Amino acid sequence: MFRHPLVIRVTHWLNAICLLVLLMSGxxxxxxxxxxxxxxxxxxxxxxxxxxxxxxxxxxGMTTVFGHAFDTTGWLGSSGGSNGEAADRGxxxxxTLPSDQDLTGGRSWHFFFxxxxxxxxxxxxxxxxxxxxxxxxxxxxxxxIRHFGASIREHLTLRFPQGDEAKRxxxxxxxxxxxxxxxxxPVQVLAGLAMSPAMNAAFPFLLTLFDGRQSARTVHFVVxxxxxxxxxxxxxxxxxxxxxxxxxxMLTGWFVIERxxxxxxxxxxxxx
Amino acid sequence: xxxxxxxxxxxxxxxxxxxxAMLGGCDRLGNVEWFQRILxxxxxxxxxxxxxxxxxxxxxxxxxEADISPWFKPNGTEDPPDRDYKALAKGKFxxxxxxxxxxxxxxxxxxxxxxxxxxxxxxxxRHDCVEGWSAIGKWTGVPLAxxxxxxxxxxxxxxxVFHCADTMDQGNTLEGGGDGEETDEAPTGNANPSxxxxxxxxxxRKDSGGQQATGDDAASGGTPVRYYESIDLVDAFxxxxxxxxxxxxxxxxxxxxxxxxxxxxxxxxxKQAKYVMRIEVVEGFAHxxxxxxxxxxxxxxxxxxxx
Lengths: 272, 307
Hints:
Number of strands of chain B: 10
Number of domains of chain B: 1
Distance between the termini of chain A: 12 Å
Structural class of chain B: alpha+beta
Strand content of chain B: 15-25%
Radius of gyration of chain B: 22 Å
CATH class of the largest domain in chain A: Mainly Alpha
Radius of gyration of chain A: 22 Å
CATH class of chain B: Alpha Beta
Number of strands of chain A: 6
Helix content of chain B: 25-40%
Shape of chain B: elongated
Largest interface: A-B, 61 and 68 residues
Structural class of chain A: alpha+beta
Number of helices of chain B: 8
Oligomer: heterodimer
Helix content of chain A: 40-55%
CATH superfamily of chain B: Oxidoreductase, molybdopterin-binding domain
Strand order of the largest sheet of chain A: 1-2-3-4
CATH topology of chain B: Sulfite Oxidase, Chain A, domain 2
Order of helices and strands of chain A: HEEEEEEHHHHHHHHH
Number of helices of chain A: 10
CATH topology of the largest domain in chain A: Fumarate Reductase Cytochrome B subunit
Largest sheet of chain B: 5 strands, mixed
Largest sheet of chain A: 4 strands, antiparallel
C-alpha cells in the first residue's frame, strides 16, 4: 500500500532534524541560566526549578523542583564536560548543541532551525489541507470514536491492527497527532516568541497569554519535555510495530499491510 | 538473516555511534566560518521580520510600581576597576561629563547636573538578560532623541555608539564565553551564587577556534578593551530610549551602571550599556573594537538583540 506521499516523507524527516537541533540547542540556551520561574520576572530565591552545583570538591549536581532538592550529579547541575572533567552545567555536554558552554552558538543554531521548523511546518500544513491528507490522518472517523474504548484496550496490549484497519491511523494515534500538531507545536512557537522583548512590544497579548515572560520560558521548557515524550513513544511504537516496514513506509512511501491472521504475531515484525 | 535480538543490539550500537559522531560533527561545523554565516541567517531573519512588525513608535510593555523587582540583579561589570572611573565615583560623579560627538554639527559636553535639567522620562520596564532571566525596574533619564537633536546629526550618521568606562579585558581576548550582559566573572553579592557560577568562564569556549579571535589582536598588546554598544537610529529615536541616571527613584547605583546607563527597551540586556561616558554618531562601526558593533557582538552575539 502506498501510504506516505513525497511531501509528507520529506517534511517528516526535516521535522525530525529540526526538532532534534531545537531541543539540544534549547538545552544549551537553558544552561546559561538553568532555572525556571513563573510570572514576568525571575524570583531568584524561589525558582520553580533550578539546577546548581555545590561548592565542595568534587562538586555535586543538585536539582531543586518546587523546593525539593535532588542529587543529580553526573546528569544535571554537574556533569562530565567534553574533556571528561566534571563541569558546573545544567544539562550535560552530550545533550547540548554545541556541547561546550556556548550561549551564542546555541542561539545561532536555535534561531536558524526555528525558522526551518516553522517553514517546514507551514509547507506540511498547506499540503495536508489541500490534499486532504491532514483530515484523513488526524480527524477520527465516527466509527473510531464509537469504538474508542476498544482502541485503548488494543493499545495497552500492544496488539497492532492488521488488514483494512492498518490502512488508517487508529483513534489514539489521530488524537495524539491532533494534539501535537494543533496544540503543542503552536504553543511552543508562541511561548518562544513571548520571550522576545521586541515581540512583546509588537504583540503584548503574548505576555497575557502566558502570564508573563518567565512563565512563557517555563511553558517553552515543559512543552519541549512533552514533545520529547511524544517522540520517545513514537519511536518505541515504530520499533514495536515493525521497524523495517515503518521505515520503508516513511522512506519510500510503500507500507506492507499484513493480511488479518488470528492470533496476532507476538513480535510484530512484518514479513516483507 | 540476522536474528532480531542481535539486530536490535546492532541498531542500538549503531545509533549511539551515529549520535556521538553527529554531535561531534555539529560542534566542528559550528566553528566553520561559512557554516556560521549560514546559521546566522536565522538571526538576520529575526531582525528583518521584527522590524517589519514594529513601528518606530511601538512601545515595550510598561509595568506598575507594584511590579518592580525587589532586587534588580546587576550583571556583568558591577564595579569598574578603572582608576579614572573610581576617581569620578569617589567624587559622586560631580566631575562627570557626558560627551556627545562624532557625525554631528554641534558636539558638546554635559555634566550630570546639566543632564538632570533636560526633559525627563520615567518608565517601568522589564529587563531581559540573554541568559534567560528578567527583572523589572523604574528608570528615569533623558530621552536620547533629545540629546541627539541638540547635537544635530549629519545626514551620513546611521548608528549611535556608546563608549563605556568599564574595562572588560586587559587585552586578553580569550576571556569569557557565552553568557550575559556585560562580563562574566561576577561572583559578588548574589543571593543565589550558584546561578551566576554557571555563567563562569571556567568552561569557556577556549577551543572554539576562529570565533574567539575578535579581530582586535592589536589589543593583546595590553590595550584594555572597554565595554561598548551600538544601536541604529530606529532604536536611538524611539521614545523609550533614554539615558537613565535614576533607578527606582534613587541615583543609579554603581552596580547598575552609575552615573548614566542606556535603556533601549525592546532589546536584550547586553544592549543596555552601563557606565556610558561618550556617545558617538557614526556611519558604520567596522573600525570600532572588533568591528561587530559591541563588546558581546565581538564575542559572537547578534548585533540585533530583539529576541
